[in-house]
Amino acid sequence: MRSLTTLLHSARLPHCIAIAAITWVTSLYSGGLLFNPPKQAAIAIVVLLTAGVSMMHFSHLQQMYLRKGDDWVTDANPVKLQIVAFFCDAGAFVAAFYWLPQAFVPVFAIILLSALYTWILSRHWQTKTPTILLIVLSPFLIGWIAGNRTGAFPWLPFITIGCLLTARELIKDVQDIEIDRAEYRATLPIRFGAKPTKFIIGIFMTVGILLPFAEMLLYTGWCALPYTAVIILIVWAVTSLQYRYKWVPTTLLFAAIVCVIAGMLVQILS
Question: What is the pTM of this model?
């Protein structure tokens, strides 16, 4: 039971659920039936990819996460995680090949990028965050491919999540600056300093907050205000907590995802 809990933790189950929701809503945005085989295949693919990427990452960087205080990593067996990650990636690869061939190239690219990120790309500021963006935002593309593609690509939600994800990753880099320095990782705050990085975080966070407000108000009218209010409250909390508590950046991102998905669903149903 303990090993199963560790496996689910390393697979980042909440991330899998959030990414599955993004994929499904984007596929609805693209057109087609509510839950047809291509949409089911797309959800299965992104969940397998997310689990595979997470487990491979943790298996390779176990010692670094121990230094960050993630005690559950002590129960993780790196070899077992790598084996399960391989089967997850293989499952996504096969599912894309047989049931969603239009997404085969993006899926193959994500698997390749995740491997390169684990061993090489995560060590340099020029490649670390852009690679994470490409991997995490890929469900938008896969979900859109799974639909009929009769509607426009949801650029505003895509950019919103991209900005907030970038802010989250940079906040984590500031929080982990000493650990990353010990691991010889050339992150943005190590290369240019914490203050310039915080300024960049502010830019991405501002854009990421204003876009949902503009999008929801534009498409859904005054019913967007409750969603926007949640984001504004989170931003207020982040201004005082983001550099002291490691749970804040992830909470911000998940709340933003919920708000953006809600706005997209209201637009689809209206």
Answer: 0.82
